Automatic annotation (TrEMBL):
Keyword Magnesium: no
Keyword flag Oxidoreductase: yes
The protein, known as: SDR family oxidoreductase
UniProtKB keywords: Oxidoreductase
Family under the similarity heading: Belongs to the short-chain dehydrogenases/reductases (SDR) family.
CDD domains: SDR_c
Organism, scientific name: Brevundimonas kwangchunensis
Domain of life of the organism encoding this protein: Bacteria
Amino acid sequence: MNPGRRRTILITGASAGIGAALARVYAAKGWDLILTARREGPLEALAEELHGYGAVVTVITDDLADPAAPRRLFDAIADRSLIVDGLVNNAGFSRTAGFLQTEPEAHAAMIRVMLTAPVELARLFAPGMAERGFGRILNVASLAGQMPATGGDTLYGPIKSFLIKASQGLHLEMAGSGVHVTALCPGYTLTEFHDVNGTRAEVSSAYPAWMWQTAEHVAEIGYAALEANRPKVTPGFMNNVLAGLAKHLPDATALRMVGGHAKRLKRI
Ligand SMILES: NC(=O)c1ccc[n+]([C@@H]2O[C@H](COP(=O)([O-])OP(=O)(O)OC[C@H]3O[C@@H](n4cnc5c(N)ncnc54)[C@H](OP(=O)(O)O)[C@@H]3O)[C@@H](O)[C@H]2O)c1
């Protein structure tokens, strides 16, 4: 690396929540940023704020549900002669209406945004990182990826399980290359996520305040785990207890417990 060259990180889903919080953490640590999501307004407002840290911030809007988006992002970044030293695959959403009540297009979009796009972006940017002997890849998965299946948001947990396992595999492959890979597995986090999926009222009454974490806390934990090159991190003591329980309970028992949880939220 040229002496004095600042590192640049690409963050997907940076217009809100955990992605925006991670952008603030990286800007504070002296990184330049490439922010992407569909909504330009919040991205531009965040970019303006991050200039306050002295960061060079590039905004590129795109819709990761479009299968062509990862390649388009890669090309748009290459056209600007930017070098991506870090990638945060964070964009995501869930649908909780039930498998049959959710349009096939929405299922396809979930898979593209949270599974296909992270894989493709990692495949596009990791070779350059490995060649330069430095890279950071943070995949924002979920506690849901470590829990038994739920009804209602049938695909969300399996997509996040995939992301955790794929991150762990890439973490092993990249060992010794200077490229760190971590799956970040938040539990309930205060962001726009539950407004977007329409469950804000239900989850707020079902889960006490102590079960919720701030996006800022989750982002700090994710940053530190990636720097330490941990394959996976789950922020919060209680979330680790839940993940541990899920691992050790018999499948049928765990499934019954989580099935009850989905019913409480009136998903099924
Ligand atoms: N909040 C939680 O309780 C929680 C728990 C565990 C894991 N997570 C995970 O954390 C990640 C971030 O979620 P969040 O909680 O921060 O939610 P959020 O506040 O709703 O933010 C989601 C971000 O994803 C972007 N996004 C959604 N669909 C997109 C698309 N088609 N193309 C491009 N960008 C898209 C949104 O931007 P635009 O709308 O501008 O496109 C937004 O920036 C997700 O992967 C989520 O699964 C969240």
